[in-house]
TrEMBL record:
SUPFAM superfamilies for the chain: Ribulose-phoshate binding barrel
Subcellular location: Cytoplasm
Name the UniProt record assigns to this protein: 1-(5-phosphoribosyl)-5-[(5-phosphoribosylamino)methylideneamino] imidazole-4-carboxamide isomerase
Top-level taxon in the UniProt lineage: Archaea
GO cellular component: cytoplasm
GO biological process, one term: L-tryptophan biosynthetic process
One GO MF term attached to the UniProt entry: 1-(5-phosphoribosyl)-5-[(5-phosphoribosylamino)methylideneamino]imidazole-4-carboxamide isomerase activity
Species this protein is from: Candidatus Methanofastidiosum methylothiophilum
Length: 236
């Protein structure tokens, strides 16, 4: 099991939200770079999200994203507002290991195809955010009309990994949606990255047992429910 600490940036600050709602901050810090450096001391990989780009289509955090990519020396996946091949190229050139495509992967298959042809699927993580069994888009503000199971099958040829977030448990510290992950593991060979609700090392052990090898952890490490030093002891 590899734990990917989440650094979510909103209005140039590092935040953690409940259910993706900008009005429900459970953590806020004015220096995302310092936070990223802290987590990089205990992890092999970083999960970096530009919430302003994802929710409001604003690129006001791009300089911070690039500074983190330049100064934090572990591989990083970056998401939020990846809506063109130019933005994709800009962030890869800035040092991102992979880029996370969410809404654009659902709504713009031509863009997804072009990015795969140009950069290879190894650079693409497709984020599928789930409410019930429906994939949500546009920063969790809209339904897509597409079931998570259809999306998982339809997009296999474009993704090195699926980042699966269960919106109902995100930020609520009540544990991940184990049954959802079991179903998805049974229908796809694409790597599944778990996200949402992970609140203890026991949750990580449970995910590991069902075959999930990577998990994004946010609120739990910011509120000291999970200690990354202990995670390293358990999983090596």
């Amino acid at each position: 099991m590899k734990v990917l600490p989440a650094v979510d940036i909103l209005n140039r600050k590092c935040v953690q939200l409940v259910g993706g709602d900008p009005d429900t901050k459970v953590f806020e810090d004015a220096d995302p770079l310092t936070i990223a450096r802290k987590w990089a001391e205990y992890s092999e990989y970083l999960h970096l999200i530009d919430l302003d780009a994802a929710i409001y289509n604003k690129d006001t955090n791009r300089d911070i994203i690039k500074k983190i990519l330049s100064e934090v020396k572990i591989p990083t996946e970056v998401g939020g507002g990846i809506r063109s091949i130019e933005i994709f190229r800009e962030l890869i050139d800035a040092g991102a290991d992979k880029l996370i495509m969410g809404t654009s992967a659902i709504k713009n298959l031509e863009l997804l195809k072009n990015i795969k042809d140009k950069f290879g699927k190894k650079r693409i993580v497709i984020a599928l955010d789930v409410k019930g069994e429906e994939v949500s888009i546009s920063g969790w503000t809209q339904g897509s009309g597409l079931s998570i199971y259809d999306a998982t099958k339809n997009l296999e040829e474009y993704a090195s990994s699926y980042l699966i977030t269960s919106i109902g448990v995100e930020g609520r510290m009540k544990g991940p949606d184990i049954e959802l992950y079991k179903k998805l593991l049974s229908i796809t060979n694409v790597e599944i990255i778990a996200s949402g609700g992970i609140s203890s090392i026991d949750n990580l052990i449970e995910l590991d047992k069902i075959g999930i090898n990577k998990a994004v952890v946010g609120t739990a490490i910011y509120t000291n429910k999970i200690d990354l030093k202990e995670v390293r002891k358990v999983f090596g």
